[in-house]
Structures are given as structure tokens and as C-alpha cells.
Design a protein that fits this description.
The chain is of the alpha/beta class. It has a single domain, classed as 3-Layer(aba) Sandwich (Rossmann fold), CATH 3.40.50. The protein is about 45% helix and about 25% strand.
């Protein structure tokens, strides 16, 4: 019964959420699009003509924003385990970005073009148990950072959702050892009661 009541409260908040309403009105696939737009307005990490890989991209809100900003001369590749409906300016790849088959698909799409920016708005399925959810969330952050070390060009950027809690400080130290600039932001579109913040890093050097 408590789970049903909790689900009902979540649905009520979701339906009444101003960003959910805006996303439907303005044609974005998720409210998360407004988080990326706010981050971009502050830090200007997406530029025309850039090559971007969006990890855990479904349903595609971030990829939509990125494709619009890089323009037709840029490239946005959207990875997810789930299928992503086609959208203009985005190449969706279904698969695990850690696996060889998926990485071969990425190489086929990009050829020799280097990756300028890695995006990750990934989050685990929430159980409600912090001791379980936080390690799962940090693992996704670690995987996204590892992807950067393998594919990001020198000087490139990284934007990643991360949750305050165990493992956060150590991960941030690792990020700062690899990037010349690393800050965290809390967009207005991020729900106030959420522990999520967004890393914005640039000038990748190792």
C-alpha cells in the first residue's frame, strides 16, 4: 500500500511539474532537456560543429538539445541499452558502450573524427535504499569517466550527473586530475530535494 501511495505522489508531482509541462509544449522528449540548456547557458561547452557522445541517452532530451546546438556540421551519437526513437541530427546506437560491438558501431559512425564532448545523464533504477543506490550511481559516473579516458580528445569536455554521497569526493578528485577545469552546478530544473548535481569539466589532458 505504501508503495502505491508513493507512486501516486510521484505521478502527481510529475504531472504538475512546470518543466514536464514545458517539455510537452516545446517538443522536448524529457524535462532533462532544460537541465542541459541551463548548464549550457552558464558554461557554453557545446559549440557548432562539435562531435558529442551522449551516454544513457534515452529518451533523448539531451541529444535533442545537443543536436540543435552543434548544427548540421556537427555530430551527436546517442548510446543507450534501450531503443531511441529517431530524431534529426542524432545517430542512435542501442547497446552497452563498454562492449566491443557497440564501440565498433561508434567507430563506424565517427570514422577518424575525435570526440569533443561526452555527456552523461545516467542514473540507476532507484530502490530507495541509499546504501544500494549510491554505489550504483557512482559506478555509472566511473564508467562515463572511463569512456572519456578512452575516447575524448585532448582539450575535450565532460558533463555528467553525479549524486552527493559516498564516493563523490574521490570521484571528483579523479576528474580534477584529468581535466584542467571541473565545477559542479545545480540547475533550477533539477528538483530541489534531489542529491544530484552536474559536473562540468573541460580541457581534458590525460
Amino acid at each position: 500500500m505504501s508503495r502505491s501511495k508513493s507512486s501516486h505522489r510521484w505521478m502527481q508531482r510529475h504531472v504538475n511539474d512546470e518543466y514536464v509541462k514545458r517539455s510537452k509544449r516545446e517538443g522536448y522528449r524529457s524535462r532533462a532537456a532544460y537541465k542541459l540548456l541551463e548548464l549550457q547557458e552558464k558554461d557554453r561547452f557545446i559549440k557548432r560543429g562539435r562531435v558529442i557522445v551522449d551516454l544513457g541517452a534515452a529518451p533523448g532530451g539531451w541529444s535533442q538539445v545537443a543536436a540543435d546546438l552543434v548544427g548540421p556540421e556537427g555530430e551527436v551519437v546517442a548510446f543507450d541499452l534501450l531503443p531511441i526513437e529517431p530524431m534529426p541530427g542524432v545517430t542512435p546506437l542501442q547497446g552497452d558502450f563498454r562492449e566491443d560491438d557497440a564501440l565498433r558501431q561508434l567507430t563506424d559512425v565517427l570514422g577518424k573524427r575525435p570526440v569533443d564532448l561526452v555527456l552523461s545523464d545516467m542514473a540507476p533504477n532507484i530502490s530507495g535504499v541509499a546504501a544500494v543506490d549510491q554505489p550504483r550511481a557512482m559506478l555509472l559516473c566511473e564508467l562515463a569517466l572511463d569512456f572519456c579516458t578512452q575516447h575524448l580528445r585532448p582539450g575535450g569536455g565532460f558533463v555528467c550527473k553525479v549524486f552527493h554521497g559516498e564516493g563523490f569526493d574521490a570521484w571528483m578528485r579523479d576528474v580534477k586530475s584529468r581535466f584542467g577545469r571541473a565545477v559542479t552546478r545545480k540547475p533550477k530544473a533539477s528538483r530541489p530535494n534531489s542529491r544530484e548535481v552536474y559536473l562540468v569539466a573541460g580541457n581534458y589532458h590525460s
